[in-house]
Structure formats: structure tokens, C-alpha cells
């Protein structure tokens, strides 16, 4: 997505060789028009995948995901990050390691919002080691539903997540693929 790559070059900052900060349009302040465009790209890619519902992970995936759900006319569910396990049986939970916070959380989905007939599109803001996307996929599969695909706003292709998801057979579509980060350096893959 050319508009996104331009925006990353204009407003993104590489905090290190592994972390990209995009607080001015995605992670803190949000540019709604750009989010809408992202939704159009995700819709165009996934429109024939038989998606029944779209899942995202709180909180930075919500803006692009709601724009996608609106354009695909589908319901959306936000997976919650809980600090500890809920012991009642009405949720699915799985432990995920946070790349940016270096800590574990319990990714949580109420059993009310998924059935085994669902075919779920998972959308997230970043793909690094693939932990968050894999956790979301585990919840979907634990419920007996299918993963229709995984949509990522910014993939850091030099980290292992993309290959792990590809190897597991998921259909991964990223709007921007970053090949290299460094001081004053952001390079994309074609
Ligand atoms: P993963 O689970 O693939 O290792 O990391 C993905 C999650 O970590 C995303 O949900 C995102 O919130 C966060 N994340 C990973 N890398 C970055 C990054 O470079 N910048 C920002 N802002 N968030 C990141």
C-alpha cells in the first residue's frame, strides 16, 4: 500500500533496529482516512475468502479493523489482553508473549462471540515474532472455527513471524513489509 509506505517514511521513527514507532497516525493519534484506505485494501484481498467475522487484538488493531469490518459488512470482535487467567468456563484463553512489553498476557475471547461455523479474518497492527497472531489463531482453532487469513498493517519481514505463519499455512497479507530498520533508516521489501 503505497500511501502507507509514504506515511511510514514521513512520520515513522525507528526506535532501534527492531522497533518502529508510528504513534502519530496508528498507535496513539489515529488518521481515520488512512485507516479507511487500509480497510479497502484488506477488503479487496480477503473479499472471496468466505470470512464470517473479523478479530483483532486490543488496542492498536482496532482502528484499521473496524474500517475493514465496515467495508466488508461483517461483525468485529476485539480480543482482550488480561493480566491473569479467568477460571470460569465461559472464555477461551491463551498465553501470549508481548514483543514490545517483554511480558506475558492472557489473550481472551468470550465463547459467546464465536461458533465452530465461523471463518475468521485476524487483523493486527504489527507482525514481529508472530506471537500475537498465533495466539489469536489458537483461540479460533480451540473454538473449532477456521482462520480465513491474517491481515497485518506493518510486517517487519526481518523478524521470524512471517515465516512462522507461512509455514503453518496461513494466508498472510501485509500492507507494508519492512525489510530493514536502523538509525534514520526504514527500508521496504517489494
Ligand atoms: P508479535 O506478537 O508478532 O511478536 O508482535 C506483534 C505485536 O507487538 C503487535 O500487536 C504490536 O502491538 C506489537 N509490536 C511489535 N513490533 C512493533 C513495533 O515495531 N512497533 C510497535 N508500535 N508495535 C509493535
Automatic annotation (TrEMBL):
Q: Which residues bind xanthine?
A: 20, 27, 156
Pathway(s) the chain acts in = Purine metabolism; XMP biosynthesis via salvage pathway; XMP from xanthine: step 1/1
GO molecular-function annotation terms?
Answer: xanthine phosphoribosyltransferase activity
Q: Which reaction does it catalyse?
A: XMP + diphosphate = xanthine + 5-phospho-alpha-D-ribose 1-diphosphate
Q: Which UniProt keywords apply?
A: Cytoplasm, Glycosyltransferase, Purine salvage, Transferase
Amino-acid positions noted as binding 5-phospho-alpha-D-ribose 1-diphosphate in the UniProt annotation, renumbered to this chain: 128-132
Pfam families given for it?
Answer: Pribosyltran
Q: Where is this gene product found?
A: Cytoplasm
This entry carries the following GO cellular component terms, namely: cytoplasm
Name the InterPro entries for this protein: PRTase-like (IPR029057), PRTase_dom (IPR000836), Pur/Pyrimidine_PRTase (IPR050118), Xanthine_PRibTrfase (IPR010079)
Q: Which GO annotations describe the biological process of this protein?
A: purine ribonucleoside salvage; xanthine metabolic process; XMP salvage
Chief place where the protein resides: cytoplasm
EC number(s) from the headed UniProt entry? 2.4.2.22
Record-annotated Phosphoribosyltransferase domain positions: 42-157
Function per UniProt: Converts the preformed base xanthine, a product of nucleic acid breakdown, to xanthosine 5'-monophosphate (XMP), so it can be reused for RNA or DNA synthesis.
**Recorded family membership:** Belongs to the purine/pyrimidine phosphoribosyltransferase family. Xpt subfamily.
Q: Self-association or partners: how does it assemble?
A: Homodimer.
Know the name of this protein? Answer: Xanthine phosphoribosyltransferase
Originating gene: xpt
